[in-house]
Structure formats: structure tokens, C-alpha cells
Amino acid sequence: MTPHETRSGAAWLACAGQAEVDEFIGGLSDNALASLPWLFEFWALPHQLPPEGDWKSWVIMGGRGAGKTRAGAEWVRAQVEGASPDAPGRARRVALVAETFDQGRDVMVMGDSGILACSPPDRRPVWEAGRRRLLWPNGATATVYSAHEPEALRGPQFDAAWVDELAKWKKAEESWDMLQFALRLGEHPQQVVTTTPRNVGVLKAILRNPSTVVTHAPTDANRAYLAESFLAEVQARYAGTRLGRQELEGVLLEDVEGALWTTAMLEGCRVDAAPALDRVVVAVDPSVTGGPGSDECGIVVAGVVCEGPPQEWRAYVLEDASVRGGPVDWARAAIAAMARHGAERLVAEVNQGGDLVESVIRQLDPLVPFRALRAGRGKGLRAEPVAALYEQGRVRHLRGLGALEDQLCRMTVRGFEGRGSPDRLDALVWAIHELMIEPAAHYRRPQVRRL
């Protein structure tokens, strides 16, 4: 394999033997060898290279440290540079838009992965501080703008733009709109957005636009250029959390309007370990059919500490063991979860599967303590009292429940506003009902005998 047969020559070099590396380096001319460090196409990760096609906006969504800034800086270079230092490129007027001017200068222009650091000596632009712009040897310019001042984009015009960390701008919609009116030079003006995703309307609108293309990468994709201590620390602290899915995996997490759970609520209920528990159950929301197109089977393990009256009880969600597969697959996974956590009972919704649900479980373990549950109300109404317990601070989550938490943040009293069925959420609701809501309804305060 040659470096040209993969999108990353660096990946090829990393995997090649020493003889292949020596042969490749030895075959380069002095000029090619001197140019190699500045050939981003050779070193780039796949998510850092522009997609093909006639797009207007390229959104690079990634976790912290995933290489978004370097990709944006190199894209600007590719737009403004020509075949020689004095030759014109595809773009001559570029807008660099950050949340503040200082962030644009310190990150996009002068940062470790900024435009100046990425530019070879003979093509390096000059920073004109008074005019807040870069000037290239071929006359191209890139001017820094602050998203705090959207009106500053009224008047100038551009043929390219780089927008950094759009999802955290305070005036994101106004600044984005002003930029679109200004992006009107050339045959096909384009823009790149580099951002860690957040649940904001302007970003979601851009992603829905047919002229938008997206590349995505987690923090870990760029680990070769990150301190191992940083990766170890953030993964230990945030891996498996909803915040970690956003900040490390670069996943856009949407809290729908009127959701019963919010990201802030779930991050506030996080614990590293559960105390000694009085009861543990495994709850199952079974999928009756199997196969690639079937819904997942929700399997959630939870426990409770029953000290004092019911208003003092605390539940702990221990594991999301959900699986996709046929009845035997989820039954085996549920029984295995019981064994891992020493659960005293398996509870399952039987509205769809009826007696089949218990029958499948009994085939694998005839003695498993089992209780069939039937839903008499809609999902939203059934979930509402469980969400109320979260608001009261009476439910805690261990780490590793990111996919479950995504479903929670899409459930409203009107129903689930997401794709597919909220099987993980349903299993959680059944578990909390079994551990806290139903026992509380039948709780009798101990009688004190008067003498």
C-alpha cells in the first residue's frame, strides 16, 4: 500500500515497517522532503479533510481536542494559497468569526493549531493588529470578527468564512445570519464551522440544511497529539456520562422542549458508586421480534436504600444492559445482569409479548424470581412520577448510562420525541416503579405501642 491509497499518509507511515518508511523518505526530492511537514492532506485525519461535493457549509463536530481548529486553519490556507506564494487562490477575502475578538486572535490566528502556526515560511501571512486581519503575500486577507458584534458583519463581503465554536455564542443566530448575507463573493462561497456540539437552535438549523455536510470525531481520534494524562483524567471523570458524550464524543444531545428530564438534572444526580442496597431489580422492556431492524430490548438494573419512611428512600440506577436481538438474546442478557448485581427479582412489561415473555425467561432459568407488569397508561404519564423523584433528588445514576440518559431527555408528558421506541427509558421507569413508587403506595408506618 502506498500513502496515496489512504486518506492519511501519517496513518500509513505509523503502520509501515522501517524499510518501507526509509524507501518512501529516500524517494523524495529535497524540495518534496522540505514541503512534507506542510502538506496537511498527508497528515490529516479523515474528519479533518473537506468532504467532496457541492456544499455550502462544512460542519466539523468533535470532542475537545479532536483537531477541529487545525482543520479549520488548514482549510483557510487551502482557500487563499495559490500554486506559488504570489499566485491567487480560490478565495481573497475570508471572515474569521469567533465568540470574541480575543478568542479569534488567540485561537484561530495565533494558537498552536492556528493559521500562523500551520503556514509554511514562504506563505505565512502577516498579522495586522490594528486592522484585526491577516495579509498573505498574494494579497488575500482574513479578518477577525466577534460574534458579540453581529452588526460588524453588515457591510463587508467575503468569498469564504471560518466560524469557530458557534454552539457557545451568546448571539449565535444574529451573527450567523449577518455572515450569510456577507458571504456573497466568488462563484461558490463556502464556510467551515468548527464546534463542540451543543443543543442550540442555530446549529440544529444548519445541520438540517441540505447544503450542509458534516464530519465528526471524538477526542480520542486525535490522541496522538494529546497528553495521555489529559485523556486519562477526562475519560475517568466524564466517560459514560451525558456530558462526556457531548464534550468527548462530540455527539449533539438535544433536550426537547418540555422534557421531563434535562441534562442539568442528570448531571446533578451522578455518583461514582452506590451504597449497600436493600433491594436490586432488573427491569425489562422486551422486544418481541429480533433482527437488525427491530427495536432494542431495554434492560436496566436499579437498587434502592429503604431507610426511614418512603420520602427518604433513595434509588440508584446501576447499569443499562440493553441489547438488540431476539427473545433468547434479551432473556439471557437480563438473567446475566441479575447474576452480576445479585438482583432479587426480574420484572418485565408483558403488554406485547404476553405469556411469551415469561416463557422465554423460564426456558433459560425456571427458578428466576419473575413478575409480569402491564402498562395501563401512556409512556409519558407513566414516566412523570419517576421524573418527579429525580427532581426531588431521590434517584442517582452511576456512570455509563449515556444512551439511557439521551432517551430521558427526549421524553415529555406528550410522549417520546425521538427516533424509535424509548425501550431503555421504559425499563428504567418499570424499575423505579417496582423499587419506590409501588412500595410507597402500600407502605404502612410502624405502629408505636403506647403503654
From TrEMBL:
<dbReference type="InterPro" id="IPR035421">
    <property type="entry name" value="Terminase_6C"/>
</dbReference>
<dbReference type="InterPro" id="IPR027417">
    <property type="entry name" value="P-loop_NTPase"/>
</dbReference>
<feature type="domain" description="Terminase large subunit gp17-like C-terminal">
    <location>
        <begin position="283"/>
        <end position="434"/>
    </location>
</feature>
<protein>
    <submittedName>
        <fullName>Large terminase phage packaging protein</fullName>
    </submittedName>
</protein>
<dbReference type="Pfam" id="PF03237">
    <property type="entry name" value="Terminase_6N"/>
</dbReference>
<dbReference type="Pfam" id="PF17289">
    <property type="entry name" value="Terminase_6C"/>
</dbReference>
<keyword id="KW-1188">Viral release from host cell</keyword>
